[in-house]
Amino acid sequence: TSKDIRLFEINDEILKSINSGDQIYIVGEKKQDAVFCTKNTTYSIKKVETSNTSLIVSPSSSSVFTIDGKFCNYYELKRITGRIERIQEILKQTEYKGKLIEETYP
Predict the structure, then answer these.
(1) pTM
(2) DSSP E strands, the chain
(3) Which residues pair with 72 in a beta bridge?
(4) In whole angstroms, what is the distance from residue 93 CA to residue 106 CA?
(5) From first to last of its 106 residues, what are the pLDDT tens digits of the chain?
(6) C-alpha separations of 32 from 36, 83, 86, 97 in Å
(7) 12-to-4, 9, 54, 77 alpha-carbon distances in Å
(8) CA distance linking residue 27 with residue 33, whole number of Å
(9) Dihedral of CA 14/16/19/20: which sign?
(10) Nearest-CA neighbor of 15 among 83, 77, 68?
């Protein structure tokens, strides 16, 4: 059903990644915007409302088609630099604090 499907506008680079079998991800924390990732690139995700309705139809060998879903929005992907704040937060927890402190607190 259309409730289970999301439409994404993708560029040639993303299409090439998908067609070559590369994994793609949508990741994010509860208090952060989700991002769309390929193995080499990160994209912001923005929901775009449109006045046009897009229809999803099943393939048909006749001139009669079944409408499987309809949409008045899609998700736009814009290339961004990767966010490293979370990586810094995780690494900070294992930061070396010096020989005296490391020997005192295992």
Answers:
(1) 0.69
(2) 8-9, 25-27, 35-37, 42-57, 67-80
(3) none
(4) 14
(5) 557 788 999 999 999 999 999 999 998 888 888 999 999 899 999 999 999 998 888 888 888 888 888 899 999 999 998 777 777 778 888 777 777 776 766 5
(6) 13, 11, 10, 30
(7) 25, 10, 21, 12
(8) 9
(9) negative
(10) 77
